Amino acid sequence: MSCWETIADYGLRSIGIGERLLPREDFTLCQQVTLIGSGMIWNIYFGFMALFSGFFLATTVAMGKAAQNPWLRKPSEWFIFVFRGSPLFIQFFFAYFLFLSLKSVSGFFDVFTSAWLGALVVLFLNTAAYSGEIFYGALLSIPKGDMEAADAYGFSGWARFRKITWPTMLRLAWPAYTNEAIFLFHATTLVYFSGFPAWKQKGDALYYANYFADKTFNPFVPYPILAGYFILLTLIIIGGFGLINRRLNRHLPQNTRSKIRLRPTLMR
Amino acid sequence: MFSYCTDPATLDGLTWLSCYLTTGKHLSIYWSVGTVLLLLAITAPVALMFGFGGAAAARSRFAPLSWLGKAYIAVVRGVPDIAFFLFFVIALDQGFEWLRHQVKCPDWDQPIRQGNDFVVCAEAKLPLGNAAQWVHETYGFMLAVLTFSIVFGAFAANVLFGAMRAVPRAQLETAEAYGMTPRQTFWRILVPQMWVFALPGLSNLWMVLIKATPLLFLLGVEDIVYWARELGGAKTARFTDYPHPDWRMWYFFALLVFYLAFTRVSEIVLDRIMKRLTHGQATTGGEAQRKAA
To answer: Where is the signal peptide (chain A) (predicted)?
Structure first.
């Protein structure tokens, strides 16, 4: 079987298109690269969707934590504390069994027990909490002069938030937020090891890498392939976020712009 | 455990719960909390050592060594840590067995990898086939500790590398001006001064390490996650004196609370240490303390 046929058979295997059975013996390098690559679809799906939806909640939570009103502040603080203080792995397990018990109460929760939605909800809340804390930190470090200038120009309420506070907050938070995005994509590999079942062997990249390592008893091929994919993904994220970073910083003088780099002190 | 627990079927309410929570199997989940603490207690210093080695290597003036150190830092950070956990557990096991195989059975003529099997001679097996159960468990635990140390060593190396670069250049230049050798400068000037800069990163790392401990489950160790799944599952009256429906949700809720408490306490303690260390330092933190006093 040529490599092109393997790609045709297994390229979209992780979402259920193509050959039904996974290869069982005589594993070729091509099969491993194709299937693990196919699993990356799920990692990208989880990472992208959670990041996108989490961004809005994170902004809300950051504003909430910075608010004067305790009715807004306390819930935000607790939300961030709960999701940042406990392991994501346990959150996945808890959420899965929670949805499982809710399922017996109402059929509405049936879909939540499958990974594509249930795990996404957990990742969404998790990344919202981590990014919320980053945004909150950035909100506190907005230069006083910027806000005074906004006041002097007569900005207030929504217009001030939309034009001054929010863009400045994003600009200051962006390097740390990039880091968070990278770790979020890494965290997506936990999904299929934490209770959420991989129906019909439709799993993510690590699921397939683990499958091959178990079958061949040789970890030295599938895991480096997985590592390669993830390093590539990390570089793409850094590139994409770098472009946004350039746009956020475009009004600043050339030498004061902050470059994106992996920061040692900010990690999940 | 308690004397009134002889016939659980007659009990109810809190007495039932007190008996239920002290059955033999529940005692193993409490013991496995000890496993987690033991893992943290061993991993933290070992990972710090690995990290120190990695950071020192990355700073080395001997180019290949410095590449090695930088590659160690970069690769582990670019790839999901859980992939490393799954990889190292098998890879280390096979590596050890291969080394022992080379030493103990030099005249073995068959290939080690036969198709999908990894075959070493019987004397090189780790642990030996006739070893006791606790040896197997300890070996599995040691592999897990080593894996954790390698992965978190890379994170620590990253933090320490940054901290070493944060030490003011003038300090090192002064040391050189006094005629210290590079080795003396490193041990007497750089290392003592870098800890203040490293502490925020290291405390962050400690939190990440705590939150990574449930991954022990993936490495085949019978830890709290394993027991929560075991004990929480629905039990019928045929197999146990304490039948109950599926309670896994509550068990994981308890774990969630346990970890929240653990990270919160660590946070408070680390904040105290940081306050103590910044006291009197010529940094923004130290300056703020001085003004407040």
So the answer is: none
Structural domain containing residue A205: 3-256
Predicted pLDDT at A257: 64
Instruction: State residue A260's pLDDT score.
Output: 56
Supply B243's token pair. Answer: 């039948």
Mean pLDDT of A247-255: 81
**How far is residue B241's CA from residue A258's CA, in Å, rounded to a whole number?**
64
Asked whether the bond before A253 is cis by omega within 30 degrees of 0, the reply is no
Q: Read off the CATH number of the domain in which A236 is found.
A: 1.10.3720.10
Q: Can you tell me the ipTM of this complex?
A: 0.86
Mean predicted confidence (pLDDT) in A13-34: 83
* A217 shares contact with chain B (CB less than 8 Å): yes
What is the Cα–Cα distance from B185 to B182, expressed in whole angstroms?
Answer: 5
Residue A157 within a domain: yes
Of A86, A97, A209, the CB nearest to B83: A209
Measure CB to CB from residue B204 to each of A209, A220, A267 and give the nearest one.
A267
Q: What is the DSSP string of B233-278?
A: S-B-TTT-SS-B---HHHHHHHHHHHHHHHHHHHHHHHHHHHHHHH
At the fourth CATH level, the homologous superfamily of domain B3-292 is MetI-like (1.10.3720.10)
CB contact under 8 A, A230 and B159: no
Residue spans per domain, chain B: 3-292
Q: What are B117's strand-pairing partners?
A: B114
- Out of B78, B161, B225, closest to residue A230 by CB: B78
pLDDT in tens, B249-292: 888 999 999 999 999 999 999 888 888 877 766 666 677 777 88
Chain A contact present for B79, CB below 8 A: yes
- The answer to whether residue B97 neighbours chain A at the CB level (below 8 Å) is no
- H and E: helices and strands count for chain B: 11, 2
CA distance B116 to chain A (A): 4
- Please tell me the distance in Å from B58's CA to the nearest CA on chain A: 15
User: Does the structure show a pLDDT above 90 at B46?
Assistant: yes
For B246, the closest of A101, A189, A210 (CB atoms) is: A101
Domain count, chain A: 1
Q: Which residues contact B261 (CB under 8 A, 6 or more apart)?
A: none
Instruction: Please give the interface size between A and B, counted as residue pairs whose CB atoms are below 8 Å apart.
Output: 126
- Nearest residue in chain B measured CA to CA from A237: B78
What pLDDT does residue B224 have?
Answer: 86
Task: Find the helix or strand (DSSP H, E) in which B162 lies.
Answer: helix B133-166
**DSSP element (H, E) containing A265:** none
Nearest-Cα distance to chain A for B162, in Å, is: 7
CA distance A103 to A112: 8
**pLDDT tens digits along A48-70:** 999 999 999 999 999 999 989 99
By DSSP bridging, strand B117-118 and strand B113-114 are antiparallel
